[in-house]
Amino acid sequence: MPDLQPSGPASLAGLGVSPGRTAGPCLRMAGPPALPAPNPVTDTGAELAVVGEALEAVAEDLRRRSAAVAGGGRGAAEILDALAMMADDPMLKEEAEQGVRDGLDAPHALDAAFARHREALAALGGYLAERAADLDDLKHRAVAAALGVPMPGVPSPGHPFVLVAEDLSPADTAGLGPDVLALVTVKGGPTSHTAILARGRGLPAVVACAGAAHLVDGTYISVDGATGEIVTGVTEEDAARVREQDSAERARLAATSGPGRTADGHPVKLLLNIGSAADLRPDGEGVGLFRTEFLFLDRKQAPTYEEQVTAYADVFTAVPYVVVRTLDAGTDKPLPFLGLPEEPNPALGVRGLRVDRVLPDVLDTQLDAIAEAARRTGAEAWVMAPMVSTPGEAAAFARRARARGIARVGAMVEVPAAALLADRLLREVDFLSIGTNDLSQYTYAADRQHPALADLLDPAQPALLRLVELCAEAGRAAGKPVGVCGEAAGDARLAPILAGLGVTSLSMAPVCVPAVRDALARHTLEECRELARAALDGR
């Protein structure tokens, strides 16, 4: 297929994952360094030193990037810290050093070591396969450092541009500068790091756009992060006009305030997804998802009881309504201190609440800390468990939480089994929160990171919406709240549909709140219900 030239308008289709519309010249990511022909090793000690220095340079660069973005929220910083830990992995270093001892020069030894680690992770599937893609980025950076050339990454042309890439690593996405207008990737999906971090920054983003591979640097394009449409060949004047319109729309939305309501006053709580108190923003009605795993993410040992109490109390003090999710980790999201064995299919293995089956002390300590933080602050703690699959699991979790005086106990709905028995879960717990990211993956048997299956992970798919409806109906019958805290909750196009299905709250990245509030306010409850009926029918 020939490159697309700016000779006239043409339309490309991708998957819109972060709303907003903008336009400008497109530029590509700098590619990985070319690996030269192997050099004979004449000084093993010197090559071993280069291996260590290269890995340390990569880790230090990631830590520096983490420190630079930490003030804007913990999500990006935590991802960068996790990548730095991967670069610091002693097993990786030992394998590269062994390659040198076997006669490889430092760049080739690093390349081979990363390749072997990538192959091992990719074979495990699920979340670990996503980590394998991260290893590609780390490999390119380490090889570049060993060769003494600049690390690959985002261009800095000195003017606004649309960044186009085959895919974006978390390190690249988290460290984007202010000149980047939007993101377009050939690969990726709606729950990739690119999508999540783009939404967190309010950058329009389109992923899984195969045609973007043939865009020419400098071509002016418009990007619609809601619909996934990319128009090529627009003029510079057209691009300026699109940006002005987008700025005006963002300013209008930023001026809105108040709780979530439909046009006729039906309430839908607008809540925030956070990883720590640093992520809190004033434009929300509380916290619908406190991801406590960020407290554990960069630790080789579990945080102490007092450290946990302090972290939870910081959030409880700042916000009157907080839903805490207990540790969402396992073999699909490996944390060093857990020491869990590898599994052939970790996405279907020991993760979330299931970690309690092998390490019950982790959950006990966390529940104790949450309860103590609530007592110290006078807060009413709402706590939910991830990856609940059966009413029995919900009942057991609820007993342990309530025994500690925790006021409200809930369950995440992330697998179809939980949605199908939502009414029975609600006999055991006080609320449900639907995690649409995993629920999509398990409903459609589609890996969240598989670029060719991104359309199946669209939260507007009728089967997924039917499962949401089942949960909402169960909540209405029981008189208990049912919210959505997956990435779908921050999609302004979906907000009226979810309200029409009966969802009582939506929890999202803070930047998404104004657009979701506005979308709800444009429709009456009956109009939301009609939109929901049409979506369930695939219309």
Broad structural category: alpha/beta
Counted by DSSP, the helix tally is: 19
Strand percentage? 5-15%
| Fraction of residues in H or I helices | 40-55%
Biggest beta sheet attributes = 8 strands, mixed
**N-to-C span:** 33 Å
Mean pLDDT: 88
Radius of gyration: 24 Å
Q: State the strand order across the main sheet.
A: 1-8-7-3-4-5-6-2
The low-confidence parts are 1-7
The shape is globular
What is the tally of beta strands? 16
Protein name: Phosphoenolpyruvate-protein phosphotransferase
Enzyme class: transferase
GO molecular function: phosphoenolpyruvate-protein phosphotransferase activity
Cofactor: Mg(2+)
What do you see in this structure?
This is Phosphoenolpyruvate-protein phosphotransferase. Keywords: Cytoplasm, Kinase, Magnesium, Metal-binding, Phosphotransferase system, Sugar transport, Transferase, Transport. It catalyses: L-histidyl-[protein] + phosphoenolpyruvate = N(pros)-phospho-L-histidyl-[protein] + pyruvate. Belongs to the PEP-utilizing enzyme family. Its cofactor is Mg(2+). It is a single chain. This protein is α/β, with parallel strands linked by helices. The chain is built from 19 helices and 16 strands. The protein has helices spanning about 45-70, 75-85, 90-100, 105-120, 125-145, 170-175, 195-200, 235-255, 295, 305-320, 360-375, 390-405, 415-420, 420-430, 435-445, 460-480, 495-500, 515-520, 525-535, and strands spanning about 10-15, 15-20, 20-30, 160-165, 180-185, 205, 220-225, 230, 270-275, 285-290, 320-325, 380-385, 410-415, 430-435, 480-485, 505-510. The strands form two sheets. The protein has an eight-stranded mixed β-sheet with strand order 1-8-7-3-4-5-6-2. The protein has an eight-stranded parallel β-barrel with strand order 9-10-11-12-13-14-15-16, surrounded by five helices. Strand 12, helix 12 (about 390-405) and strand 13 form a beta-alpha-beta unit. The longest helix has 26 residues, at about 45-70. The model is unreliable at about 1-5 (pLDDT under 50).
